């Protein structure tokens, strides 16, 4: 029996099974799914289990009911490669996949749909993030016990109390992450002599990842909640594109040690290297140096060495490491500059989609580029299967308010543009900056005829040293989230906020690298800053959305659309109206040609059926107040 598609892609729009345009809204479930459920404490161990992530099966109904009450009926469901295949190459954790199936079957009962997010950050838990199994690093020749010692990566486990919050992004500059991603995406070009078990490294790594996700799709094939699969969370280029081995200009954290590419390669091979420190996301130099690999040990297991030395990228002269092929990662043999997304990321995405779609033609693929960076560009006719059928794709880009994220302070008068570097000062200009950034990023895929979705954004709940935990005042988080969602509304974007961690506490945060962005916390016994993210929005539209706006001060929601009358469910425009903002009741006013308006406050819903085509407008206001229809 052929599976029915919950959603389909139609030009720039996502449509439901009735043909209505949908603006699905929800969250990432969840941040703690990056780490094992057992044993507790995120140990760097093979013998782990992710059964229980995102939450124990017996707790699923409570969590899904809460999410549905918030209007979050669309989830980006986090699954890591390690969770599926941690025990060894080709050894899948069937107990975990059975558990995930049970959780997704429960989601169906609450009218919640999902797309599976193969999540990673800086490759793996052994390299300061999450995602890939440990055996991928061993296959590349790494001795796992020497990763921290050689400076190839740093972790919370290795640094303990010295670990700096929001510093994990600096691992993108380190050897382990940079090498693994370069091998994964570009091993054929940059390490042609590196084989794993007789297979080129790039082919071996990609095949295992794609096969693991394909097996996951096969095990979940009867889950009606699944809309599709992501291709890969926040893909990274590793060393690809670096023009100078003596520098490294990709700082993605508030500050820390910034080794050059040559420093990372040398330190992995047993050289001690003194590297500079920076602050303000790399903008300012700091005094003092940090020594990588002070003991001068090698990262590699017996019989292995640095693939970049083997490729002649660097060597040793007079006892010192020197660059040999400075442009190896930036310039192709024909003299052109490499384009990471076009040359390496896009071929992977096409291969991934081709494999999964063979048995799942109805899946939508949620594609990503490098956050605030290189993305695949899709021209007409490029995104097609080998049989000529087009892939259904949505670009799920990410956006974060970098200053608030990195420094954990909400300043409503200050905003930096993550792409252009432009700083906006003043409350009005800061809001305009957020609007412009999100709309601009949505415009990239839309200009290519592809729908856009904001797949990650959010705010920390431990702002200002966890002040809100003591005061119970979440107004800063609510204001920040309100500004972000105002931009989401203005751009008429589907969205999934980061994140919902069922295990979150004030003390442990989301359980991963000291982050604390979960909308839910055990310590608060429920949601935090709920009015920041739980707000009215158009869920399904019988026609074409034109304008959506929510005035938080007046509690006034305005939605306009070009109505297309239809029979039955296809003709009903559905709007979510939460009790969080209208505990004293609400009323609606409609302007346009004749319509049937049904208010159902007990279900947090407003239904509008327009009888004639044309521009329609509905305004929701608190009960007893006049709207401006």
Write up what this structure looks like.
With 629 residues, the chain is α+β, with helices and mostly antiparallel strands. It has 2 domains: 23-129 and 181-237 and 339-533, TIM Barrel (Alpha-Beta Barrel); 539-622, Immunoglobulin-like (Sandwich), CATH 2.60.40.1180. The protein has 15 helices and 30 strands. It has an 8-stranded parallel β-sheet. Helix 12 packs across helix 14 (475-490). The relative contact order is 0.11. The model has no long low-confidence stretch (mean pLDDT 95).
> Poorly predicted ranges (pLDDT <50, ≥5 residues)?
none
- Secondary structure tally, helices: 15
Please state the structural category. Answer: alpha+beta
Going by CATH, what is the homologous superfamily of the largest domain? Answer: Glycosidases
Largest sheet: 8 strands, parallel
> What fraction of the residues are assigned to beta strands by DSSP?
15-25%
**What is the residue-mean pLDDT, rounded to a whole number?**
95
Distance between the termini: 47 Å
Just name the CATH architecture of the largest domain. Alpha-Beta Barrel
Based on Cα principal axes, name the global outline: globular
CATH class of the largest domain: Alpha Beta
Number of DSSP strand runs: 30
Q: What's the gyration radius in Å?
A: 25 Å
Q: Tell me the domain tally.
A: 2
**How much helix is in the residues?**
25-40%
